[in-house]
Amino acid sequence: MAPFSLMTVGANLLARSWGLFSTAVTVRCSCVVPTLKNFSTTAGGPPKRPLTAYLRYVKEQQPIVVKQNPDIRVVDIVRKIAQQWRTLTPEEKRPFEEASIAAREQYKVDMKAYQDQLTRLPSLQL
After folding, report:
1. Own/partner pairs, 44-49, CB within 8 angstroms, 24+ separation
2. How many C-beta atoms surround the C-beta of residue 99 within 10 A?
3. Same domain, 22 and 53
4. How many domains does the chain have?
5. Domain that holds residue 28
6. How high is the pLDDT of residue 97?
7. 42 — alpha (psi -120 to 50), left (phi > 0) or beta?
């Protein structure tokens, strides 16, 4: 801990004496550096990965379990939901699995469109 604190004290002294980290220097530097171009037309970036069947079940059951047990810890809530998931029959799990499969297929389509968009942009700018 001592060497680190000595380094920070030294950096603070340099900053104060030379004014390296003053707002005036920051403003001057920000005016010189040009803004970066964004090569993507979407602000969100790549699509998010879809939820698995289990995570869909957890997302649905968490508010219910919290409402039934308001004083229980988060870890215990997850344990309780996991135990419920293990006791479900395949027929009860089917809606969650089908939703997961559909979301996975949509993700593949969205990811392909995103990758095509990324590969087309550099060639358009030449």
Report:
1. 46/111, 46/114, 47/107, 47/110, 47/111, 47/114, 48/107, 49/107
2. 15
3. no
4. 2
5. 1-35
6. 98
7. beta
Whether residues 50 and 108 fall in one domain: yes
**What single-letter amino acid sits at 2?**
A
97 and 115 share a domain?
Answer: yes
Count other C-beta atoms under 10 Å from residue 125's C-beta.
8
Q: Are 54 and 25 part of one and the same domain?
A: no
Does residue 52 sit in the same domain as residue 27? no
Mean pLDDT of 80-88: 98
The average confidence (pLDDT) of the chain is: 79
pLDDT one-digit tens code per residue, 14-53: 556 555 455 554 445 454 444 444 555 545 789 999 999 9
What are the angstrom distances between the C-alpha of 98 and each of 78, 84, 90, 92?
A: 22, 19, 12, 11
Identify whether residues 13 and 69 lie together within a single domain: no
